[in-house]
Amino acid sequence: MRTTILSLLFISLFGYIRAGPTCIRCTDAAEISECITNTAACGDNEQCYLEKVTKEDLSIRYNAGCRSTAVCQIMASLNTGRKKRDLVNCADCCADAPNENGPCNAALCGLKPQPLQATCVVCNGIHSDVRSCTQAATCPPNEACFTGIRIVGTAIRYVFGCYEERVCKAMLDNDNTNSTITRQGRIIHGDQGIRICDACCKGDRCNAADCFDLRKKMTAGDFSNGSTTPVPTGNP
After folding, report:
1. What is the 3-state secondary structure (H, E, C) of the chain?
2. What is the pTM of this model?
3. Per residue in 90-103, pLDDT tens?
4. Nearest Cα to 142, choosing from 115, 163, 161?
5. pLDDT tens profile 13-38
């Protein structure tokens, strides 16, 4: 009996904490591309939605985010694709898992979004916490995501950005216990302090992870050479 009660309690708690779908989120966006990189984790009782709206000046705008499953069901039964006074041209919901094009509501209302490009966490200067840099950007084709740990005075600080792949490869080729990024490659503006760790990676916002963990996973095959000139391991 006790085992049965505990099992039921676990199932109840699991149902309570289970998360809903990940959706794109925006309000009054002129292009759906403005919504793609802004996402929200919906609740267990919610679905993703997308609205395509015609404004008074006849411009098209998009609204997206999370909406109650009950409301989505009502929308479906009422066929809300018909025009109303508020000029909602299309309103639809979905609850599918994200794919290479992003969350499912990026493809509602007949839209065909381009596949997402991987982005890196990119910020100028040094930061006191790995979560303090929230900006993202798409790096040039010959660059990879980069993160580093610095000692400034007695404090630990972090840097985030993009680095040339040839420099990332040189970290492994030179196998230097200190940082192999000297004066070669692109410099992150505001980087300072004693270098404790430098690491590169490929993948969407992959450089938000721990620098030491990323360094362990780095392989030379991950990065292109781009140049036959070796990167020096020491200061001139």
Report:
1. CHHHHHHHHHHHHHHHHCCCCEEECEEEECCCHHHHCCEEECCCCEEEEEEEEECCCCCEEEEEEEEEHHHHHHHHHHCCCCCCCCCEEEEEEECCCCECCECHHHHCCCCCCCCCCCCEECEEEEECCCCCCCCEECCCCCEEEEEEEEEECCEEEEEEEEEEHHHHHHHHHHCCCCCCCCCCCCCCCCCCCEEEEEEEECCCCHHHCCHHHHHHHCCHHHCCCCCCCCCCCCCC
2. 0.49
3. 999 999 988 767 78
4. 163
5. 333 344 688 898 999 999 887 887 77
